[in-house]
Amino acid sequence: xxxxxxxxxxxxxxSHRKAMFSNMVTxxxxxxxxxTTKQKGRELKKxxxxxxxxxxxxxxxxxxETGKKLHxxxxxxxxxxxRDVVKKLFEDIAIRFQERKGGYTRLYLLGRRPGxxxxxxxxxxxxxxxxxxxxxxxxxxxxxxxxxxKEK
Length: 152
Hints:
CATH architecture: Alpha-Beta Complex
Distance between the termini: 78 Å
Number of strands: 3
Helix content: 55-70%
Order of helices and strands: HEHHHEEH
Number of helices: 5
CATH class: Alpha Beta
Strand content: 5-15%
Strand order of the largest sheet: 1-3-2
Largest sheet: 3 strands, antiparallel
Shape: globular
């Protein structure tokens, strides 16, 4: 019986599971949306929400508490190995979720995978970056301006 065993093993060893979720969390924060199996997504949600909460707590600390701020960053760096992604988490994602009490990620069920009929899910951050739509429009406008300048 599995009484009080809360960790889903997912058919992997401890080190493999740890590395897999480290990579998945990094991808989630980098891309803000990933597709995975339902069971992995549920475990990933737990891990990612704890890391976002840590980053949010860093914002609430006063400037005099630099030791605690550094500790929070180091605890996140245990899981997320990419320093650029950690910077994005603390400077962008944490600010977006500053007013939210929890529930930073959303899990959509997508149906079954054709190869092995595994249940697939998409996990994404709830608050989307508003600047992405503006950034995609700007390069097109710049290209039009360059063409007009060349024609003149």
